[in-house]
Specification:
The complex is a heterooctamer, with 2 copies of chain A (263 residues), 2 copies of chain B (361 residues), 2 copies of chain C (79 residues) and 2 copies of chain D (180 residues). With 263 residues, chain A is of the alpha/beta class. Helix content of chain A is 36%, strand content 17%. Chain D is an alpha/beta fold. Chain D has 6 helices and 6 strands. Chains B and E meet through helix 4, helix 5, helix 6, helix 9 and helix 12 of B and helix 4, helix 5, helix 6, helix 9 and helix 12 of E. The structure holds thiamine diphosphate (2 copies), iron/sulfur cluster (SF4) (6 copies) and magnesium ion (MG) (2 copies). Chains A, F: This is Thiamine pyrophosphate protein domain protein TPP-binding.
């Protein structure tokens, strides 16, 4: 932030909202109302609270969020589209003492990268995956994603996604939870203050299980893409609430720290 | 051959397959991670690594595919780790995107291709059909791999050490291009221990957490105006500098009228043919490129300037011959004999082509 | 007791903050920032109603809002 | 070319030609020579026959693949049909006359017929026919010293079966003697 | 250009992007299936196909990846169907295994590559960095694609028709290699309707159930002794026969002292530069290869024999120039100017290199 | 079969076991006791009983069974390793009037081809997949597969598969059943006469749903690979019974013709 | 009433058939076929016990067994 | 080169330069000429400015990308800064003097200043400033007949908005007249 006198604190004042240092102080390239910004901030807060910023390696994936490395001040590498879990596997096997995470969109993770995420999960790689599901390919201009809802119009299903032709939207948090090496899998949403608070806890947990060496940590974040949904940000949040959450139920699908024992 | 040789003093020979020599060489070179997916004729490499690496304190991962293997390699490289993947032709095709990314983001790693017959599923016999893919770039964009071509089991070992050294010296992926012959044959190999990899290797760029310094970024996306052009200029300058690493074996070239150019297994088979013809008094010699990129073009050009004629022999339909011709263009041309992939080559097969070329223009 | 500061150059005018303020005091201003976005604001006279709950800051995708509380009011808002 | 020898050894899958190929190669190596060994490679592997090629030389070895070998060890009939035509004029072939019709040997080559199975049987185990044949081969070609071959047995027979080494050495010797 | 032209009589021009012309051309050529995965700068193609194909009674599938796209193409080809996939550089790298399989099992299909800057993720601007990958074989083994390089939106349309015809004529995959310029620019295009695809196309090899005949098998595995060599000989003979399809635009070559060789968008930009230099009295002409494989080498060789000099201009670090040099070797050499991927080329950029080459040896 | 007088039927005799015509009369290249032969025969019987032999296209995958086209007299195409479901998608979209099936091993389908099979299933491609799970890479000499059991030794997990390092064996029939476009998913076994009879019914159902246009049909067949398990065929069958079936329970995991309605 | 025919050149001697015969009449012969496999058989004197149940044929991976029943015995065995 | 004209049109994202670029190209095509249109392509797209290049010629067109254009339509200040230096000596630029400081026009080029926003405002909609500028451009260069441009409006304005066509034609005319 630029120096701003309004931010000078009076003696009896204090900040009621801390911006993590690891979040780089620069404007993002995201569209107005895009939730990647929120997701970035949650990751930043968690890394800082865990005290692992200096030991973290970020694997950026290809999508609107490829530039995450411009916003998070951590060592980063860019993975080919969909392959971030394989790249993260390589990083982690090379440096088992580091915290390694990927940040991936739904096209990246659930379409082209489905085999890589599932096998990394199944092997129980000690990595964390932050999965931003906005039901569309943001970066390339709004094509259908595996998570596109039935009836949703995109540039490659102009009549709306049709179950008969394109199949049902894939529920990743559930699928991942079913795999052997997974320590934590949850779905949260970024559409409301309450859900954002819950999302933060889920992100934290997905990193905690890595740090504790329990297995693979996965968190799916339902997010808005106002641009490609062709609606304003406020409507986009309503859509998450009314259309996405009913199909993609929020919750924890697997948590080995509660019950199932060490993975 | 590698620049950090430290002989252990006991030159005991072990009798192993080329594939095993690859694995031994990698371990000697300090390889800490192996990622790979089974495919004939190189399975001895992952199999050996799967039991040897964990003992050596390293990590073996059987990847879900060659796409994943290559990307795991990219990840380990980003962490500054000496890592290896190996495969054979179809599997190598699947790695092309990741290889282009590694080259573009300047990540070192070693990729072994035990070339088999193609195209498609082809067969599991030897072939040199992947020369173009290795040397011209099977992936997209302007990039180069350093490509080493072993012809003996000892070279399999030695070149692995060299491959890791070169990969980190230039921050570039290195391909070791063998075939089913050199991979499956056994020869005595003298193992040797190169100097330990210094802890400072990659220390100024590897990812390890940004403690006390600015975060590092390893990427191949360059969107800002002119940035990609800048990166390409930088890469081209690096590739030009690599020319210093070009290497070839010369055999009886001095008095030769005809120079046979052949690499890898075909190079050694050609050597047998040349021995036979020498015994009959024919003045023929051999240049066997040990590096395919950088290509030993200046050496060939020098020989061309001495007035020698050329015959390129490959186990494919004509690939390296283009580089030979380009190297000596303006002076002389190279004849070509291509042994078809799908047929096992022997030195007798090369006699007639060599005699033809001796007689020819 | 509490106040919010909008960092105009980060605000993209998405108006998500306006939907979560329990006091309903955040509105779109008529100002454009350098990126051409019409930024959000709390009109000066409404600021006194701010509880410092930080809901607006939590939902802002562009980290454009700072929330400041006086120490007495501390317990309520902080996450 | 002070010393150069190449050989193709061929037989049924169970006859142990790969083993004696390796053994000869080890012996060559232990004698300080250069050697190459290459198994047939490819779809043939799944069939019932097996063969391998060994080259021994005091120079560096060019081709490990030999189209017209200088010598053969032929353990069964199909192998004779397949490889005898390829043998160099004046080359040496050791025939396992227990299973191969030695009368089919061509005059243009030198043939050493050894009833390897029978000899091995007498020694107590038909499975050692391969060793008998190799012993005969060593005598016929003189490529390496038999003692070196015997010493090299430890390299190809795993520790688990080391008690069989003396018997195998006997079989080598028996073949060697028979070819004498 | 295609051999089965049937003009509709109404040459009305439509004003469309090159990408759209690709889609229109494919539909006109009888393309019945599209398989693809989004990537900039060619998304107009799948987007247009997604709404146009179902109406045309065809099938549009957004594949899960380019690996899958290419394999779906292989499947549709096996059924004897005219099918298309399109992508850009990184996506094309992922198709290399399937492309090698298609070539090896002689399956026809059309692949569009709207070449972007590389290596790696590179950028989304135009580039010709994928020439080697397209022409020499990015996949494994000895195989060739027919490669067509459109420079105008009309050619985008026309070459799609040609591409499908060639694919089925030779039972071989065909690549249409454009870039972000020809894909994103708009020009008037005169659509035309080629003769309908005859129902007998592929009738003697396509898979459709073995009713009343022996089962058919489309494969690239050849394990029996000599079988793979036989297949490779057959393929090489086919590739030699393809030479008849070589095509290039010649512009002011007759009296030219210097021939600029450039393809695709760079070819047309070079044309502007040549017009400027001609206006200043410089005798320079252009050969713009429209087929990259087969390469119009004989045409160039003919010009070389006339004593002309050569300059190859590419939007990469030097790829096609090798084919130019090989074509005219023994007569003359070609100079080279490579415009760096990552920088937008304009005709002014080419003036100095051309003048240099005019002055040069 | 060569003419064999023993096969001449007396007047009162008849064949009690019919060999389908579509099964080519030649010896297979499979190892003694390998179950690929049984699986081939079941497919042949089903195609013949359905009367679709002349309308069937087989997509062969890469594994020991790549040569299926030498044994089934139907039009066939060879897919690259793991990509048979994508190839089959292309064939079927090109010829929607044909019966299209793939025949894949566990390395092929569950490892390298995981994304392809899951997306074809999710799209509800009208194809059938016969999945032969023998917990190992047969063709390449016995390396670990995603389905290799915990503790099982292979050439790339010489100490036995370890949950912590390589994760748990993947259960494909269950995962496939969870996807939207799937009409039928079941697991059967080829180790006993009873199980073979049940397997035949499952294979039939997996083809039926395709013919009826209901969606994707999937059948997993637990099979033996005596060679790479390094045991004889009889022991291999015992292993299936005692070790595989407990981890890979037999049964129907999804069947839209019973209950769930048209997919 | 029933009998089985083993096609020696297809049999690979895996012995799976021997494990499923309810009558236990299938055994390994001492014959090798041309592929070198020791084939299975029902000794001539045991054949009378064959019920024609076809279990052996069903489990044979190499389709090496043919089962023949006399018409009377039909109902029992056929799948 | 009987007829050849190229132009870069540049402005803010919302000013509709792509629309008038397309319109001019359509008009050229409808006048029977060859035309090319290319938008800027690349990361700039996401920023606030936009530009495109149109070439009109009666010969086949070489480069669609123009480094030193013969003419410009400059809708805002940043575009003047960026493109005026590239304009050919003696080239023509139409400046939207409502938003651009016309005093910065260089003497080496011919400048037609048109207060496009103001004129459009008077016609009832500032959004038509682009049409005003194009009208002026057509007058200044004579590249195509204004009537053809007007007729081409149907090609770039979708049926849904066809009621706006007369107003746009008016704006074209107003620009044309102003440049007279
Ligand atoms: C191999 C490859 N294929 C395709 C692309 C093009 N591409 C870039 S991002 C993207 C999809 C982005 O969608 P998603 O992962 O959902 O991320 P979002 O932008 O929605 O956050 C695609 C297809 C690419 N870069 N590489
Ligand atoms: C791209 C590629 N990678 C690897 C291979 C090598 N390969 C052939 S078959 C096979 C695995 C076979 O295992 P599975 O699918 O389980 O079939 P099985 O042989 O066990 O029946 C592999 C890895 C290949 N042909 N292509
Ligand atoms: S396109 Fe969608 S995902 Fe991408 S930045 Fe804009 S709103 Fe966010
Ligand atoms: S802190 Fe709470 S009360 Fe104050 S402006 Fe923000 S949301 Fe409203
Ligand atoms: S949520 Fe943030 S970016 Fe959006 S309007 Fe409010 S302050 Fe601006
Ligand atoms: S290796 Fe295994 S799967 Fe392959 S044929 Fe032999 S038993 Fe069957
Ligand atoms: S048919 Fe039944 S009873 Fe007769 S041999 Fe076969 S298994 Fe035994
Ligand atoms: S099951 Fe078949 S192959 Fe096996 S022993 Fe019996 S008859 Fe022979
Ligand atoms: Mg998305
Ligand atoms: Mg298997």
């Amino acid at each position: 932030m630029q120096a701003d006198e309004r931010l000078a604190l009076a003696d009896d004042e204090q900040m009621a909202f801390e911006v993590p240092d690891v979040l780089v102080d620069r404007a993002t390239h995201y569209c107005p109302g895009c939730h990647h910004g929120i997701a970035h901030r949650l990751v930043a807060e968690v890394l800082e609270e865990m005290g692992v910023v200096d030991d973290t390696i970020c694997v950026a994936s290809i999508g609107c969020s490829v530039f995450i490395y411009n916003y998070l001040a951590v060592d980063s590498v860019e993975a080919p589209h969909g392959r971030a879990p394989a790249v993260a596997t390589g990083v982690k096997r090379g440096r088992t003492d580091k915290i390694v995470f990927t940040y991936q969109g739904d096209g990246d993770l659930a379409s082209i990268g489905l085999a890589e995420v599932m096998h990394a999960a199944n092997r129980g790689e000690r990595i964390t995956i932050v999965f931003v599901n906005n039901t569309v390919y943001g970066m390339t201009g709004g094509q259908m994603a595996p998570t596109t809802l039935i009836g949703q119009k995109t540039t490659t299903c102009p009549g709306g996604r049709c179950r008969d032709r394109e199949g049902m939207p894939i529920r990743m948090a559930e699928i991942i939870a079913g795999l052997g090496g997974v320590a934590y899998s949850a779905r949260a949403s970024l559409d409301s203050v309450k859900n954002i608070r819950a999302a933060k806890k889920a992100v934290r947990k997905a990193f905690d299980v890595q740090q504790q060496g329990l297995g693979f940590g996965f968190v799916e974040l339902l997010s808005g893409c106002p641009t490609n949904w062709r609606m304003d940000a406020v409507k986009a949040n309503t859509r998450i609430r009314e259309e996405m959450i009913p199909y993609f139920p929020l919750g924890v699908y697997k948590d080995v720290t509660e019950g199932e024992g060490v993975c | 051959m590698p620049h950090n040789t430290t002989d252990t003093g006991t030159p005991e020979r072990i009798f192993i397959k080329g594939n095993e020599a690859i694995a031994h060489g990698a371990l000697a070179a300090g390889c800490r991670c192996y990622f790979g997916y089974p495919i004939t004729p190189q399975n001895d490499i992952p199999e050996m690594m799967s039991y040897a690496l964990p003992d050596a304190g390293g990590e073996f991962v059987q990847a879900e595919s060659e796409v994943a293997s290559a990307n795991m390699l990219l990840g380990a490289a980003a962490a500054g780790i000496r890592a290896l993947t190996s495969s054979s032709s179809p599997g190598i095709s699947l790695m092309q995107e990741a290889i282009s990314y590694m080259a573009g983001s300047e990540l070192p790693g070693v990729i072994v291709n035990m070339n088999r017959g193609g195209p498609g599923l082809g067969d599991i016999g030897p072939s040199q059909g992947d020369y173009f893919q290795s040397v011209k770039g099977g992936g997209h964009g302007d990039y180069k791999l350093l490509v080493l071509a072993p012809a003996t089991c000892q070279e399999c070992y030695d070149m692995m050490v060299q491959a890791f050294d070169l990969a980190f010296k230039y921050r570039n992926p290195v391909m070791v291009l063998g075939d089913a012959i050199v991979g499956q044959m056994k020869e005595p190999v003298t193992p040797w221990k190169p100097a330990a990899v210094p802890a400072t290797e990659a220390a100024d760029w590897r990812l390890e957490g940004a403690k006390g310094r600015k975060p590092r970024l390893l990427k191949s996306l360059f969107l800002e105006d002119g940035a990609l052009a800048g990166q390409n200029r930088h890469l081209q300058a690096k590739y030009a500098a690599m020319q210093a690493e070009a290497k070839a074996e010369s055999f009886l070239t001095e008095d030769a009228e005809l120079i046979v150019v052949a690499y890898g297994s075909i190079g050694r088979i050609a050597k047998s043919a040349i021995r036979k013809l020498r015994a009959q008094g024919h003045k023929v010699g051999l240049v066997r490129p040990q590096t395919l990129f950088p290509f030993p073009g200046p050496l060939l050009r020098g020989l061309a300037e001495q007035g020698k004629r050329f015959l390129t022999i490959e186990h494919n339909c004509g690939q390296m011959v283009e580089d030979v011709r380009l190297s000596i263009r303006g002076i002389v041309d190279s004849a070509f004999y291509g042994h078809m992939p799908g047929e096992m080559p022997g030195s007798d097969d090369f006699l007639a082509p060599i005699l033809d070329a001796m007689g020819g223009k | 007791m509490s106040r919010v500061v909008f960092l105009d150059e980060r605000c993209k005018g998405c108006l998500l903050c306006t939907t979560v303020c329990p006091k309903g005091i955040i509105v779109q201003s008529s100002r454009f920032n350098r990126q051409g976005y019409k930024v959000a604001e709390v009109p000066a006279d409404a600021m006194k109603d701010c509880t410092g709950c930080a809901s607006c800051a939590l939902i802002c995708p562009d980290v454009a809002i700072r929330v400041i509380k006086s120490r007495k009011a501390k317990k309520a808002g902080k996450e | 070319m002070a010393l150069y020898q190449d050989v193709i050894m061929a037989g049924f899958g169970g006859q142990g030609v790969m083993l004696i190929g390796n053994l000869l190669a080890y012996a060559g190596m232990n004698a300080g020579l250069n050697v190459t060994y290459i198994p047939v490679y490819g779809p043939e592997m799944r069939g019932g026959t097996a063969n391998c090629t060994v080259v021994v030389s005091d120079e560096d070895i060019g081709s490990p693949i030999i189209q017209r070998p200088k010598s053969l060890i032929v353990m069964n009939q199909p192998s004779l049909d397949k490889f005898q035509p390829r043998l160099e004029d004046g080359g040496v072939q050791v025939l396992n006359s227990s299973l191969v019709d030695a009368s089919q040997a061509e005059a243009r080559v030198r043939t050493v017929a050894v009833p390897a199975n029978d000899i091995a049987d007498k020694l107590g185990n038909t499975k050692m026919a391969n060793m008998v044949a190799l012993g005969a081969y060593v005598r016929a070609t003189g490529v390496v010293d038999l003692e070196v071959v015997k010493k090299s047995l430890t390299s190809v027979i795993s520790a688990h079966y080391s008690h069989l080494i003396p018997k195998n050495a006997e079989a080598l010797q028996a073949g060697f003697d028979h070819a004498g």
